[in-house]
Amino acid sequence: MESVIKVENLNFYYGNFLALKDINMDIYKNNITAFIGPSGCGKSTFLRTLNRMNDFIENTRVEGKILFQGQDIYSGDLDPVELRRRIGMVFQKPNPFPKTIYENIVYGLRKNGVNKKEVLDEVVESTLKAVALYDEVKDKIYKSALELSGGQQQRLCIARAIAMQPEVVLMDEPTSALDPISTLKIEELLLELKKNYTIIIVTHSMQQAARISDWTAFFLNGEVIEYDTTEKIFENPRDKRTEDYITGRFG
């Protein structure tokens, strides 16, 4: 199985506070990897180290290595902007720009100097189809994205991320603000998208992790307690703390 991201002995600090402790992990290509664990255990902090989103927070520090396609992303040789194009991100609450649906999708491309109308038109159509939104919005792509429902907005944000043709898509609790029907649509979408992308999802829902992920990492107090195939984590965990969390004894 091909490893896309390899994390070696990672420690992450907010000031003097050690938020992530000695994390080692491989993220595998065209798989969905889920991070589970109680609130405040380091899941989202770890997710944001993978495309250097934590760089925007003052007084943070990284020790260890994160190799993306064999290149250390913290070595200084890799432009963080280019890294974030290759490792896209979708946030917890849908955050479309106050622009048309069309302009939301092509925003990153325009920023990168792509302005040819036929290219942009093709990307808009193909990404809207990829996120199963095209039929719902094809007659209003020049209307404000803010008119869409919450579930549609989140699918649009996924379309905006994949318009940049990333290799990896990070998702920080992408369905926590959505109703059950919209959540199901996003889950179905992720199972389809993993054919072309590597997906890493932070989720507060163990049921969601069990339903859609191939690999699951259980975080507790900034440490990865256990990381294995989702089937093993849920059916035969090695660590009692994992079992206690999954069976609802704490968390």
TrEMBL record:
Signal peptide: none annotated. Residues 5-246 form the ABC transporter domain. One of its GO terms (biological process) is phosphate ion transmembrane transport. It is a peripheral membrane protein. SMART domains: AAA. One of its GO terms (molecular function) is ATP hydrolysis activity. Keywords: ATP-binding, Cell membrane, Membrane, Nucleotide-binding, Phosphate transport, Translocase, Transport. Pfam families: ABC_tran (PF00005). It is found in: Cell inner membrane. GO terms for cellular component: plasma membrane. PANTHER family: ABC TRANSPORTER I FAMILY MEMBER 17 (PTHR43423). Part of the ABC transporter complex PstSACB involved in phosphate import. Responsible for energy coupling to the transport system. This is Phosphate transport ATP-binding protein PstB (TC 3.A.1.7.1).
